[in-house]
Amino acid sequence: MTRLIVAAGGGGDAVAASMLDAALYGGGPAVVLTYAWDRLLIDPVPGPRGPADFTGLRPLTRSVMAVPAGASPIAPAGSTLPRLAAELPQTFALIDPHHGAEGITRQVEELVQHLAPESIDLLDVGGDILAKGDEPALRSPLADALTLAGCCQVNAPVRLLVAGPGLDGELAADDLRDRLGPSVLTLTAADVQPVSSVMEWHPSEATAMFAATARGVRGLCEVRDAGLPVPLTDEGPTVHEVDLDDALDRNALARALLATETLDEAEQRSREICGCSEIDYERDKASWLERRPERQLDPERALLQLGQFEAEARTRGVSHTTFRRITEALGLGGAQREDLRALLVSSRPEQYAAPLWRIPAYA
User: Fold this and answer.
1) How would you classify the pairing of strands 238-242 and 159-163?
2) For residues 23 and 28, what is the distance between their CA atoms, to the nearest angstrom?
3) Residue 74 gets which letter from DSSP?
4) Residue 211 and residue 189: Cα distance in Å, rounded?
5) Is the peptide bond before 76 cis (omega within 30 degrees of 0)?
6) pLDDT tens digits, residue range 63-78?
7) Is pLDDT of 1 > 70?
8) 221 and 320 in contact (C-beta within 8 Å)?
9) Contact assessment for residue 229 and residue 318, using Cβ atoms and an 8 Å cutoff
10) What is the per-residue burial (b if ≥16 Cβ within 10 Å, else e) of 319-357?
C-alpha cells in the first residue's frame, strides 16, 4: 500500500507534501503528484513544464511520468523536481496541465488504479485554493484551481488539506479562518528536519515560512518582488482539513475549469473570472528580464545594498524576509540567488532564521 499526495500549486507544495507525509503517516511509500512550475528565478520559461520539457522521465501510467533524480529539464527550461527526487524519499510524478482539468482527472485516476493508495490528499500551502476568484490580492489562482477542478472529478475519495493559512501572501489568514475545517496537525521543528537540507536551496517562499513558523519564528515577513507583508503567527504551522465540495462551490474559477481540455482554455477562463492569467504575468516579467542586463554578484556592493534594504524594511515593520525577496530587491537574477544566500549566511550567521533572513530591529 502507498499514499498519493497531490501538490496543488507545485513548487513548494511538493516540499510541504514531503513534510506532511512524514508527519502524518510516518514515511513509507508515497507518490507526490506535482506541477513542474517554478518561478522565473529557477525556470526562465513562463508557465508549467510538461513531459516534453524533460529528458530521463520514467512512465508510471499511460498519462503520468515520474521525475527521477536523473531526469533533466531541457534548456532553457529549469525545474527543481530532479533535485527534490534526489534528496527526498517520495516518488515525484509530473502533473501535465496541458490537457486541462479533464487531463488532470485522468492522471489522478490512472494513479489510483495503478497504486491502489490507502489515502489521497490534495495539499495547498497558503489557502489560495479556497479563493472565490475575485479577491483583489489574488495573484496566482490558476494552478490551485486547476488541480481542485481535476481532483473534484476523481472517482475516489480525496481529502483537501490547507497548510499554513495566509502564508502565500495573497489571502490573509483572517479571511480564510471561516473557510477552514478542523486542524489535523501543527508542525514542529522535528517535522521540518527531514527537509531541512532542501530548504537551504529551494526558492519557495510560502513553504519557507511554513517551515520557519514550525521552528518558532514569529514576526512580519516580506515576500515576492512586490514586497507583500505576511504575518508569521501561531497559525503558520497548522494544517486544516477542508470539505472538497465546499471548496469547489466557493471557487468560481475551479468550477469554470471543470470541462477544460487544454491549458490555453484554462488560461482564458482565468482571464474571464479573475481578470488575468498568472502565466501572462510571467510572460511579461520574462520579457522584462530578458531586456535587463545580467549583473554579476559583487559581495561588497551586495552587503551595502542589503543594509539599505534592511533600513527601509524596518520602517515598514518587517522582521524577516525571504532570499527570493532579497535577490530581486538587489536587482540580481536567479543565477546569483544561491551565491547571494551563501554570502549572507556566512557573513552574518546571526541573522539566519532558517530558512528565512532576520532583519534586526536596529542597524
Assistant:
1) antiparallel
2) 11
3) P
4) 8
5) yes
6) 999 999 999 999 999 9
7) no
8) yes
9) yes
10) bbbbbbbbbbbbebbbebbeebbebbeeeeeebebbbbb
Is there a contact between 179 and 3 (Cβ–Cβ < 8 Å)?
Answer: no
* CB atoms near residue 239 (< 10 Å): 24
Spatial CA neighbour of 128 closest among 145, 146, 105: 145
Query: Phi, psi at residue 169, to the nearest 5°?
Result: 80, 15
pLDDT at residue 104 is higher than 80: yes
Look up residue 246 and give its three cell numbers: 465546499
- Answer positive or negative: Cα dihedral of 345, 346, 347, 353: positive
Cα separation, 163 vs 201, whole angstroms: 21
For the sheet containing 228-232, what is the strand order?
228-232, 219-223, 320-321, 356-358, 352-353
pLDDT of residue 290: 82
What distances in angstroms separate CA 164 from CA 172, 180, 182, 183, 281, one per listed residue?
Answer: 11, 11, 13, 11, 25
